[in-house]
Design a protein that fits this description.
The relative contact order is 0.12. Helices cover 33% and strands 20% of the residues. A hairpin with a 2-residue loop joins strand 6 and strand 7. It contains nine helices and 14 strands. By secondary structure, it is of the alpha/beta class. The strands form four sheets. It has an eight-stranded mixed sheet, sandwiched between helices. Strands 1-2 form a two-stranded antiparallel ribbon. A two-stranded parallel ribbon has the order 11-14. The protein has a domain of 222 residues: Alpha-Beta Complex (Protein-Tyrosine Phosphatase, Chain A). It comes from Pleuronectes platessa (European plaice).
Length: 348
């Protein structure tokens, strides 16, 4: 496992982060170690009318170093490709007190249907971007319509209203409770169960965007995004490749799946949802049709090396046999004792 993890490229500084580290915007970042890449950072349009009246595909053009900074606002958030299509997820840092209005503007402009809160417990007090009843952030009024608590997570239904428009939007928020002051959730089952509830409620559909956030928008959010895509692929194609999923995530945001423990957790969760039964990986209480293949990059490399070694051994054995056969004498022929065969040709 460690060998496979070490083989995943880090893609450190492979793209520019000029906008996020500018003097104007660096105060909007919680940690300085995770800055969104310029090419896929989330753009907040100042011209709101054009932003939500236009087609989402038109407004999601890639940014560049030469973009007009007067036309958009910075937020520490990155578009993440999902299994069902590009930019299905947004990985963001939990908003600061000064960036909460921008956070809700992002939710409104990008037509987000689901929020996933993975913030650390010691950061929770400064990360509450809603109120028990109503609270206004910039031009957006946020109201908590209902709250449903479980031992694993809290589900809130929020209503967003633009104070200058008649439009309202409903957003479901899932606050995960089983990730307290530790690198990983208490159990893989807890996180998998919440993901199941999110998908059951329509979150993660092809036409809707899900925002997942944590302190830096990478450590915990990276684990969530990786599992989200792995499980979608497993249910559809019956194949999961942890190596390739992590590799792709690292190209989309800094410090995604940065530890071996997080990488191992992905495998542990996959094997919990699809445990090994009689040598095959199958979904819990599922038929043989639900069996899936887990691709191991290390195992594939070892198999390739083993095949090459086997071929070399077979070639060597074949050469040896040919040489031995060439030394055998023809039937009925006797070779003179003590004869120097190096200078006397054999009869053919």
């Amino acid at each position: 496992m460690e060998e496979e993890f070490d083989r995943v490229p880090t893609f450190h500084k492979w793209r520019t982060v000029n906008v996020g580290i500018s003097e104007e915007n660096k105060g909007k970042n919680r940690p300085s170690s995770v800055i969104p890449y310029d090419y896929n950072r989330v753009l907040l349009k100042l011209n709101e009318g054009r932003s939500h009246d236009s087609d989402p595909e038109d407004e999601e053009e890639e940014s560049s170093d030469e973009e007009d900074e007067d036309s958009c606002r910075y937020i520490n958030a990155s578009h993440i490709n999902g299994y069902w299509g590009p930019r299905a997820l947004i990985a963001a840092q939990t908003p600061l007190p000064d960036t909460m209005a921008d956070f809700w503007l992002m939710v409104y402009q990008k037509k987000v249907s689901t929020l996933v809160m993975l913030s650390e417990e010691n950061k929770e007090s400064e990360a509450v971007y809603w109120d028990k009843d109503k609270r206004t952030f910039g031009d957006l009024e946020v109201e908590v319509v209902s709250t449903d608590a479980t031992p694993t997570f809290i589900r809130r239904n929020l209503m967003i209203r633009h104070v200058k428009k008649t439009e309202s939007r409903s957003v479901n928020q899932f606050q995960f409770l089983k990730w307290v002051n530790r690198e990983l959730p208490e159990t893989p089952q807890c996180l998998a169960d919440m993901m199941k509830e999110i998908k059951k409620g329509g979150g993660g559909s092809k036409s809707q965007t899900t925002v997942v956030h944590c302190n830096d928008g990478s450590s915990r959010s990276g684990v969530f995004c990786a599992l989200w895509n792995l499980l979608d692929c497993a249910h559809t194609e019956k194949v999961m490749d942890v190596f390739q999923v992590v590799k792709t995530l690292r190209k989309e945001r800094q410090n995604m799946i940065s530890s071996l423990a997080q990488y191992q957790f992905l495998y542990d969760t996959v094997q919990m949802v699809f445990p090994v039964q009689n040598g095959e990986v199958k979904a819990v209480q599922a038929s043989a049709a639900d069996s899936i293949q887990i691709i191991s990059e290390t195992a594939a490399a070892e198999q390739a090396d083993s095949a090459a070694s086997s071929q070399q051994q077979e070639a060597a054995e074949s050469t040896h046999l040919v040489a031995e056969e060439d030394k055998e004498e023809e039937p009925g022929k006797e070779s003179p004792l003590m004869e120097d065969t190096s200078t006397v040709p054999l009869d053919v």
